[in-house]
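Appendix C: a fully annotated inverse folding record. The material below is reproduced so that readers can follow the format used throughout the book. The structure is listed first as tokens, followed by the designed sequence.
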């Protein structure tokens, strides 16, 4: 007496539940991985901006303190940006 799918125990004769749970867990893990990678990408882009801002601050301090001249300041400023 077969009714529906499998041997009367639902999908796959009772073996379907662990398979479905495994697929659900793997989907959650893949989604978490995608979110993590997007987070790292965005964080990396923001750090680049902060690093160049900090480098420009240091350059400005060196210029104000007289450690570098006008020509060197302009050349280094172009490199940072």
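Designed amino acids, in order:
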């Amino acid at each position: 007496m077969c009714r529906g799918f499998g041997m009367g125990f639902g999908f796959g004769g009772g073996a379907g539940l662990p398979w479905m749970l495994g697929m659900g867990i793997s989907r959650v893990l893949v989604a978490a991985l995608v979110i993590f990678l997007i987070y790292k990408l965005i964080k990396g882009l923001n750090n680049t901006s902060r690093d160049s801002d900090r480098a420009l601050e240091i350059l400005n301090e060196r210029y104000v303190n007289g450690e570098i001249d006008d020509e060197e300041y302009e050349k280094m400023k172009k490199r940072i940006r």
